[in-house]
Amino acid sequence: MKPVMIILILLGCALQALFIKAEHEEKYVLADILKGSASLFFVLVGLLCFKENPSSLNRLLLIGLFFGMIGDILLNLRYVFPKNGQKIFLLGILAFLIGHILYLISLLQKADQTKVWYYVIIGAVLAALLLIYIFKTMEVKTAFKIFGIFYLGAVFIMTAVALGIAVSTPSKGAWIYAAGAVLFTASDVVLIFNTFSGVTKFSLRITNLTLYYIGQLLIALSLLY
Question: Distances in Å between the alpha carbon of 59 and those of 8, 48, 100?
Fold first, then answer.
């Protein structure tokens, strides 16, 4: 890994930490600027990795990272414009969904086609079980339910396929990506419980945001291999 990548990673992590602090202090405009800046750094890491290892499949991952950055900005913009908070939040989820679909398209083309549907089914079943639990135990608005079905389905299927590839055809890049996907999924699960369970904890917010950012960085670094 080149020194410039290490510098970008460290700067991104620093900005992410400052964002968490600013959000907790309810400085929402500053927080959104910091969040967008931190996300820009994992996009830049992905761009540098892509230049080292360009391919059509890696290009899809890079575009997916860009949509992740857009999603980050929108999710926090809802605090800046609270009257339109729900619409902005759903647009952010849509941006993440597009990013995950791009990730998934890339992964499906890399996977063993004789096994890939097993991975897809496993991911879909896990997502369905989580959704059933959420809908039974938490109060979730209809719009969030609809988006949640598609979003969590895409996240869990993407992660299951990534793990399947890493196990069946192991490589450094495959395991780095799989680790990033697992952290990303874990961050979403933490976010859901912290948002809809009725009890919001700052410690869980820190966990959610930290897992997410490391996950995106790992996905970006996987382009290098």
Answer: 20, 12, 13
d(CA 215, CA 190): 14
Supply the pTM of this predicted model.
Answer: 0.92
CB 82 within 8 A of CB 46: no
Residue type, 21: K
Q: CA-CA distance, 103 to 52, in Å (whole number)?
A: 19
Place of tokens 């602090």: 21
Q: Who's near 136: CB < 8 A, 6+ residues apart?
A: none
Nearest-angstrom CA–CA distance, 8 and 30: 20
Domains identified in the chain, total number: 1
Find the mean pLDDT for residues 66-95: 92
Query: pLDDT tens digit string along 163-180?
Result: 999 999 999 999 999 999
Mean pLDDT, all residues of the chain: 93
